[in-house]
Amino acid sequence: MPVRTVVLVTGAGFVLVGLATALIPHVAAGRDATSGGVALSSRVLGGVLVVLGVAMAVWPSAGAPGLAFLIGAALIVHGLLTGWQAVGRGDADGVDQRVTAALTAIASITVGVVTFSWPVLTLMLFRFGVAAWFVFIGLHLLFSALIRRRPDSNRHRWVRTLAAGSALVIAVALAFGSARILAGVPLPEPGPFYTAPANVPPEPGRLLRSEALTDGVPDGARGWRILYTTTHPDGSAAVSSGTILAPENPPDTPLPLLTVAHGTTGIAAKCAPSLSPTPFGDGAGTALEEMVTQHGWVAVTSDYIGLGTQSIHPYLVGEAEARNVLDASRAARQFNEISTTTETVIWGHSQGGQAALWTGQIASSYAPEFQVKGIAAFAPAADLFGLAKSDKSEIGGKTVSAYIANTWNDLYPELHLTEHLTPGSKNGVEKIGNLCFNGKDALPALLRGSQIPNQVFPDELLNGEFGTLLKSQTAVGPFPAPVLVAQGLADPLVKPELQQAWVNSRCAAGEPIDYRTFPGLSHVNLVAADSPLTPQIVEWTIDRWNGTPPTPTCGIG
């Protein structure tokens, strides 16, 4: 049933119920609705429901947000007036009827408030429940008419009270559960360690401070968080945080360096991986642990600016992320607890996959002291414009779009992004901006995304200057080393057909790509511990270090 039809039918339903409430006072007030106050409140309640129903019927273009607002408002008004009726009842009505009315009033108000947080869910419920709702109202009218004609036993009267109490319990549980789920998982805010010095050194890649990590450090390894200098997207000096993971007992000789770009964890400062209880679990965490504890590598991961440190996170801005990644590796080489080589292999998953490709692309110009021996991108957001178009109406796409809207609105103020969002999107976009996307933290962000009724960015925005900027985030090379791209064929976020198209374009441009696909694996499962990709990543990385000839797949298959 289309949104417009749902709104019209629901509006008509409110009008009918309002008329019934006003004209048949015992529907709202009970069998003994003889007092003037109760009759008046019934007429007022009925009139309000009629007005709200008419508003729905003449304003169907408001869609899910408007429908949810009007339904919520109607429920709250219904609850307030039902409460008024409870107060206005005379002693002859009995304690049970007053208690029933009071419980119903509180339940109605509670559900009305919850409705504001779930506009799309409200629409879905009404889409499938409008007919049932009218049946309920009809039965309620019939039942009310019948019980007027025969004495009502105390048992029947208190059964209604028990039912109203049960409805209140359910409503409160719904409100409590919604508040807990949508609020997100409590996360630690960055402490003094993440505070930038008064005078930030202009040289990028300068190690400023470090401290040992204990949480989430695998057996056989040692971990640290670091603070170092880097650059903003405009090239000005900035500060970023990150992590280092090294073997527990490293040799005196320089260790191979693994440069890691992490995937989406959010855009707020509290979403930094170095603040997480599992700081090394992002992306291919099992393969990362094996590289460090079994093969003696040092892994360095940038949080990116704005995560941990106070700044605007350059979310999916490829070159800016790449600078942060390379500067983290520069800072690691100044860390006196370990010694690393200037030869490195770069890894990244999802957002980090895009960042890994960009890191390889700019390494020779931005950080020429490093020799990149390989670039591995797992389900990378390689074609950002294509993903924005294909994922625009899906939950994951809306969540990612919300992160883009919040960050790019400040990074590119000339676009005025938040002023051009689709109707009903702004509130959800703002809420998602403060929610992280890491492990269990991802659920609240996705639920908020599910309640954005339309695509976040209108098509005219995607087809304009904003779309051109999205296209400019595609890494095209040249790449200084062999490139591995891994893709799950059941990935709902990074579409396999878009990844294949990007690989084909790079192969056509003369860039040899080792493209590996994995049937049945989704975006997250691709880099899970039991994924068939896990041992392949380790083997491929060691091969790059040993100088084994790469195995590009261009033209194969």
Automatic annotation (TrEMBL):
Keywords: Membrane, Transmembrane, Transmembrane helix. Gene3D superfamilies: alpha/beta hydrolase. InterPro entries: AB_hydrolase_fold, DUF308_memb, Lipase_secreted. It holds the Pfam family DUF308. One of its GO terms (biological process) is lipid catabolic process. The chain crosses the membrane at residues 6-28, 40-60, 66-87, 99-118, 124-147, 159-183. It comes from the Bacteria. GO terms for molecular function: triacylglycerol lipase activity. Signal peptide: none annotated. This is Lipase. It comes from Nocardia coubleae. The lineage of its organism: Bacteria, Bacillati, Actinomycetota, Actinomycetes, Mycobacteriales.
